[in-house]
Design brief:
The complex is a heterodimer of chains A (107) and B (368). Chain A is α+β, with helices and mostly antiparallel strands and 107 residues long. Chain A contains 5 helices and 3 strands; from the N terminus they run αβααββαα. In chain A, helix 1 (3-20) crosses helix 3 and helix 1 packs across helix 4 (76-99). Chain B has 368 residues and is mostly helical. Classes of the chains: A alpha+beta (107), B mainly alpha (368). The interface between A and B is medium-sized, with 21 and 20 residues.
């Protein structure tokens, strides 16, 4: 798969995961790599970029052992961005699905 | 493994226009994620698979930073290029105007403005510390010429040239640990102190300051007990050398005491300074250099100049490990130092031998 395309999709997934609940970096990576092969991509640069763009805020929380963890939480701007992303994605994937004859197969 | 992984990321990030605070933040984040991976019982290899290889991470992180800078400076570059292109003509005009009033010398100094303007305008919008590193040879040359013309004390004013590598090392401090910075600076401190002591007639035992270099290098060793005993062998050797020299008048016998740290180093096989780590060629060069230095010193009293032989060690390391296309640039400081010292020491040409240092920026420019 084209790596730019894959990166865009993963970015949407990262937004979606953080939108579900406040979460720390490694847990995001774990959640994504359960479903998608992310060997060629690195999640953290995406997390960092989305934070710099104002889609995420961060806060730290004590872990009991070791240094406090950095948590990511989605901002209003991030939610709007995710909504746009998801609606575009649904439209796009529906189109691809139709082109590949998905509906005919379903019938 | 974690330290190595984080260190590699830090070093690679240091190559880009990223502030130290941002680098620290990124490293902290990776450190936390690494710990999270360990908490889940993953092996180091599995954690790195999850987090990504350092080069890949930095490639992706730096994409954003560089894109930002390029956008900002694209418009500015057009004007800068015009100034850079005009500068040689402006310098020629200024030079002839000064010459008409009898100032051809030192009016020629205006030609230094050509590379200086190239650096200032060519690097504008980029990291200011890198600009200072690039400008330092010209600033230092200016200082050297001013002091030289005014006071005619060319030697040891040339010592200001040591500021060039020192500035470069200090500016790269964000990618180095404090002890690594001190280790990198130690040769320049040693050379400066050596020449100051030499000027007061203390060439011997003034050369002992060069012992600072391995002694500081040893502080990088992980095994602290070994480092302690290694340091002790140097202290004992220096003590014996001074005792033999001052009390018995036999500096040559005293010099043999330095075999003690050499033998200890070989026995523990732990010359843990970076370039001693892997290559047999470098190790052999170091041992041969030490042997030649002491044999030459004892039999031909060549303590004052034969230290140049130690430059062979980094030279061999560069040839063995460095990328071939960068050889000339990487070797130029050592070639320049050798030409400079040989001309100055043997031909008493200190007043012009400093020109050899211009080889360093010339090599850099040619390589581009």
């Amino acid at each position: 798969m084209n790596s730019q395309f894959k990166k865009g999709v993963i970015e949407m997934c990262v937004l979606h995961i953080v939108a579900q609940k406040d979460i720390y970096g490694f847990a995001v990576i774990e959640a994504i790599s359960k479903e998608i092969d992310v060997n060629e991509n690195t999640i953290y640069p995406i997390l960092r970029r989305l934070t710099e763009q104002g889609y995420f805020d961060t806060f730290t929380e004590a872990t009991g052992i070791g240094a406090p963890r950095k948590y990511y939480t989605i901002t209003n701007q991030g939610r709007l961005h995710l909504d746009e992303y998801e609606s575009e994605w649904r439209k796009f994937s529906k189109g691809v699905f139709n082109l590949l004859g998905g509906e005919k197969h379903e019938r | 493994m974690k330290d190595k992984y984080l260190k590699e990321i830090r070093i690679l990030l240091g190559l880009y226009d990223i502030t130290r605070a941002e680098i620290d933040d990124i490293i902290n984040d990776y450190s936390q994620m690494y710990d999270d991976g360990r908490e889940r019982g993953l092996t180091d290899a599995e954690i790195i698979d999850y987090l990504g290889k350092p080069q890949k991470i930095v490639d992706e992180l730096s994409e954003n930073y560089q894109l930002c800078d390029n956008n900002k400076s694209r418009h500015h570059h057009r004007h800068s290029n015009k100034i850079i292109a005009l500068m040689p003509f402006l310098c020629v005009i200024v030079f002839f105007i000064l010459g008409r009033y009898g100032y051809y010398h030192p009016g020629w100094v205006v030609f230094l403005l050509i590379p200086v303007s190239g650096i200032i305008f060519g690097m504008s919008g980029k990291n200011k510390t890198h600009m200072l590193t690039a400008l330092s040879p010209f600033l230092v040359t200016g200082i050297y010429l001013i002091i030289g013309f005014v006071t005619h004390i060319w030697h040891p004013t040339w010592l200001v040239f040591l500021a060039v590598p020192v500035i470069a090392i200090l500016n790269s401090g964000k990618t180095m640990r404090p002890i690594e910075t001190i280790t990198a600076l130690s040769p320049f401190v040693a050379v400066t102190v050596f020449f100051i002591l030499g000027n007061f007639g203390y060439w011997n035992p003034g050369w002992l300051v060069f012992m600072l270099i391995p002694m500081i290098g040893i502080l990088n060793m992980k095994n602290k007990a070994r480092a302690f005993w290694f340091e002790m062998t140097f202290i004992v050797a220096i003590g014996v050398y001074l005792y033999c020299g001052y009390a018995l008048g036999r500096w040559d016998y005293g010099a043999l005491a330095f075999l003690l740290p050499v033998i200890y180093g070989v026995l523990i096989n732990d010359f843990n300074i970076d370039f001693f780590k892997h290559d047999l060629a470098v190790k052999i060069t170091a041992i041969i250099a030490i042997a030649i230095y002491f044999v030459g010193g004892i039999f031909f009293n060549s303590w004052g100049y034969l230290w140049l032989i130690f430059l062979l060690v980094p030279v061999v390391a560069i040839i063995v490990k460095g990328p071939r296309k960068n050889w000339f640039v990487a070797l130029s400081p050592f070639i320049a130092t050798t030409i400079f010292f040989v001309l100055g020491y043997f031909c008493d040409l200190w007043t012009i031998s400093w020109l050899a240092f211009l080889l360093i920026p010339i090599a850099g420019i040619l390589n581009k």
